[in-house]
Design brief:
The complex is a heterodimer.
Chain A lengths: L4 H4 L3 E6 L3 E6 L10 H6 L3 E5 L5 E4 L9 H13 L6 E4 L6 E3 L5 E3 L11 H28 L6 E4 L2 E4 L5 E3 H8 L29 H5 L15 E7 L6 E4 L2 H5 L4 E7 L2 E4 L5 E5 L2 E6 L2 H11 L2 E3 L9 H13 L5 E6 L2 H7 L2 E9 L11 E6 L4 E5 L4 H12 L6 E5 L13 H13 L3 E4 L2 H6 L7 E10 L2 E11 L17 E7 L12 H21 L3 H9 L4 E6 L2 E5 H15 L9 E10 L2 E11 L5 E11 L6 H20 L5 E2 L2 E2 L18 E6 L17 H13 L15
Parallel strand pairs in A: 4-5, 11-23, 21-22, 25-26, 31-34
Antiparallel strand pairs in A: 1-2, 2-3, 3-4, 6-7, 8-9, 9-10, 11-16, 12-17, 13-16, 14-15, 18-26, 19-24, 20-21, 20-23, 24-25, 27-28, 29-30, 30-31, 32-33
Chain B lengths: L2 E5 L2 E5 L8 H8 L18 E4 L2 E4 L12 E3 L12 H8 L9 H14 L5 H7 L9 H14 L5
Parallel strand pairs in B: 1-5
Antiparallel strand pairs in B: 1-2, 3-4, 3-5
Amino acid sequence: MIQDPKRREFLKVSAIVSSSMLISILLPGQVRGSANAKAELSQWCVYVHIHSDNSVSMQSPIMEMGQFMRTAGPMILADEMDLDWSLIQFDTTMPTFLRRDEQNNIVYAHAQIGTGGSQTLKNNWSYLRTAGAIVRQMLIEEAAARWGCEAARLTAKNSRIIDSQSSRQFSYGELAQQASTRRVDLSQLKLKHPSQFSIIGSSKASIDGRDIVTGKPLFGIDENYPNALHAVIDRAPAMGARIASYNREAALAIPGVKQIVETPHHSGPHWPGGETQICAAGVAVLADSHWAALQGKAALATTWTDANRYAGLNSAAHRTALNALAQSSNPGKRHRDDGNVEQAFEQAEQVLEHTYERALLSHACMEPLNCIADVQKHHAVVVVGHQWPHQVALEVEQLTGIDALRVEVRNKRMGGGFGRKGETDFLREAIWLSHKVGQPVKVLWTRENDMQRDYFAPAAAVKIKAGLKQGRIQGWHMRQAQTGGEAESHGFPAHLISDCRIESLTANHPFPLGAWRGPGQMQQAFAVESMLDELAYAKGSDPLTFRLALMGPAKIYPINFWAANEIDSGRMANCYRLAAKMAGWGRTLKNGQGLGIAGHFTFGTYVAFVLQVQVDKNRKLQLQKAWGVIDCGLAVNPNHIRAQMEGGFIDGLNAALFNQVTVQDSIVATTNFDRLRWMRMQEAPTQIEIDIIQGTQSPTGVGEPPVAPAPAALANAIYAASGLRLRRMPFAEHINI
Amino acid sequence: MPIQFSVNGQPVNLDQKDQEMPLLWFLREKMQLTGSKFGCGIGQCGACTVHLNGSAVRSCLLPVGQLQGSAIRTIEGLASGTDLHPVQQAWLDEDVPQCGYCQAGQIMAAVALLEQVNDPSEEQVNAHMSNICRCGTYTRIRKAIELVAAKTPPET
């Protein structure tokens, strides 16, 4: 339902008459009021065309980086519209509609097309449902007018309006053209009750499946832009380094190479604070093909001066420093300090203290970074797969002075994003080059540059001190030292332990950092769920029983974190319980086999996994099977939730086993998949079974939550199988796989 | 001497100067066949996998000069008109892709495997399917391969 009756009045529905029905919906807070019809027209967002033959063309209102949002958006719209899913033709284009808000910020004019932070579905849920319901109402009222009956007796189903008191019906196609001129009385608008959903809640395959398996050009890298020069940039390998020399003539002698342009080093403020290198100094080779540009880059034989390098940047030393910081008595930033932890430890029968560590993580999106920019005098076109299309327009405005609203952002499917494709560095180079040379430019990164010039997920060392008394946890003190960012203090076991202190500490460093796939969540879950296991074994208790006892009776605790306003120990306990049941927890295992359990709450979603591993006498590890349970409220597309549970868990296992960026003297040494090992089929679990707890709450995110419990589930399973307790990622340094 | 080979049954003639070009870039830039993807450029990830005379190869490291008389098949040559290859269909049936970027390479690797072995064992699948999927779709890839194997009559 639309919550605020005052805002309802501002809801506008606009449509233009044509051979098909064009639906555009302007919601309150989404557009400034304007009496100028033309101004509004430019802000229209057209997602749905209903054709006279009752077929429907639909553009997805949400971007895609592999988490099924291009499918979820249309599902929500189509369900409220009561469309026959099989009649919808999906368009691959995803236009960006922007406007300036009251503070002159560039924001999305309609749906929140950007994607990230496990918020995408949540951010679009109300908007798309309301949009779909308005269209359905327009069609119902058109049918009522034609039949001369009350709209209330008409129902919509499978792209038809049906008169419940007779057998007569209209197809949407028959109604569309005239319905599009109707204005809906929004006070009468009703969203469906969840029990009426027919598409939401059903498993739908990706709308792009056929295009993917037949190799259609869906990605930015596949775009063949007219007259574009292909650019390969030779970027400084050491952070902060500058160009010393290069052989321009040799590069220009390569057939197809047109121009050589130096691209400037650029530093600036960046998350989580302070300055970092945004773009490395580089030499761009512009050519008539990527292959020619690659050869040109090799011919440059660029040398670099390290006068400006970030002195002494070394990942191994950084990890040592983080561990020392976690062990130190330096006061941290206190995120939580319930009760009195010192007193609790004094009264404890037993106190455990362990530190859990993680390396800097690489993104390694399968599609290397790329961007096409065509900067003209007063407008620009950018073709790119970027998580935040409004940032693309803003980057053009900031670099060229062209109004962001005069930038056409053509969104492409992302070959993985994971937070990396929310950065602006790869946009900046393409825009800058096109502006400089006055021609469209397509910049495609080599894998080496993609890995070297990454914005890493922070490394961390988390020390947890926890006491036991009469079988219960007596005091919990967590010190999270990390490259950047803060500690999460809202998740369990906070709330459940009366004496609980959570602190964060940041090591001084110049590593470029960025968003990853729930990295802070993973670090926290690794430490918390490993320590819970260690406490359970110390007490001689079963790890599942110990967790269920900790959760206690179902209780909801208020929080305010990542759009979640509560955390429910009952929902968490249900996930543990069900995952354990699916795995046959407690069954007799073969020698060398073990089951590990771990769970996590984040982004409003609860997840638990059990993993079965085998560790042989030579410490050879095999991941066998996993069972996962998720409670993400109302399950919009069970297929996509399962896919994210499977893939997210594997991403977390990969981080636990292999993912580690190494930096030696300011140079990233893990430059490609020969030096940065990545999980392949033979290392992955053979099977992952997923169950979804059907909830009634509004849907919450599923992209990041499944990643978090993986490292702890693996560490706990290895311990159960072998007695070997791993506390330092990546585990492949300590066990054979 | 010009190099002659075929791509999806279509004859290709190359002159001397292009011979160092990796097949991947020839396919993507000269033939506009962009289904084969660039992932690493060093033959590791397998996003560029195509068939060379029926065997799966990494096309990013394969100079076109070495292709005299060869038959190349790419993801674009797998379906017959609108009829998908059984492996492509299995990929849809299991809804394998997430971001989808590596999947053309995965499918080409799986097709080559299933053309050699009707009903591969778990170990054979592990040994043959060495392509990286950053989204972690491995369990669905395995299911899709098993689905095709189950539908294929056993060898006599």
